Amino acid sequence: MGTILLAFLFMLAGQAPSTHEHQNTRCSYFFQYPPDWQVVKNPGDVAEECVTTLRPADYEKRMAEFDVDVYTLTVQVYERSFLQVADENGFDFNGEWVVVGRQGATTGAEVSNNNGWLILSGTAGVGCFHEKGGYAGLCEEKRVVAKYESDHRIVAISGNNAYLVDTILKTFKFLPR
Questions:
Q1: Alpha-carbon distance 81 to 71, whole Å?
Q2: pLDDT tens digit sequence for 110-151
Q3: Residues facing 9 on adjacent strands
């Protein structure tokens, strides 16, 4: 039995890592993401400094098959108030939290506290467009705004892949400056 366990451990040691790590040294944050995704240069419409953009490693192939970008995910750190960042990311509070999507359509948002994080999350219906132009229909975009109890910075994560948004949030850490 011990020999089988040792062989299994050696086999695992030779495998590729199950996650990749990204550290933004300029804005002092860190997170992990799946190995079949990659950090890419921010698209031209993203001018903010503390933004990280992720896409699947086979993004070009996916876009050739289905030319609607339902893959790109962004992680952004702000030095503003939680309420201001929530507003800028499409959340609204009028007795209850909602997330605002296309043409002002709202869906309920959820507030939670988890391991020291105050988390506001929701899914908005947003318009999706073909890369070469033209409306493709509605897509669902998961949005999260979160604040760690001992830090004044706020992180916002958005994208169509809810699993990836949740994965990044679970491993996200603000680093000391």
A1: 28
A2: 999 999 999 999 999 999 999 888 999 999 999 999 999 989
A3: none
Q: How far apart are CA 91 and CA 143, in angstroms?
A: 9
Reported as a single tens digit per residue, the pLDDT across 26-71 is 999 999 999 999 999 876 655 577 999 999 999 999 999 989 999 9
What's the CA gap between 137 and 96, in Å, rounded? 28
Count, in order, helices (H) and strands (E) of the chain.
4, 13
Distances (CA, A) of 78 to 73, 138, 147, 163: 16, 28, 10, 23
State the first-to-last Cα distance of the chain, in angstroms, to the nearest integer.
Answer: 49
> What structural domains and CATH numbers belong to the chain?
22-174 (3.40.1000)
pTM for the full predicted model: 0.86
Nearest alpha carbon to residue 51 among 74, 28, 21: 74
Burial class (CB in 10 A: 0-12, 13-18, 19+), 39: middle
DSSP 8-state symbol, 95: S
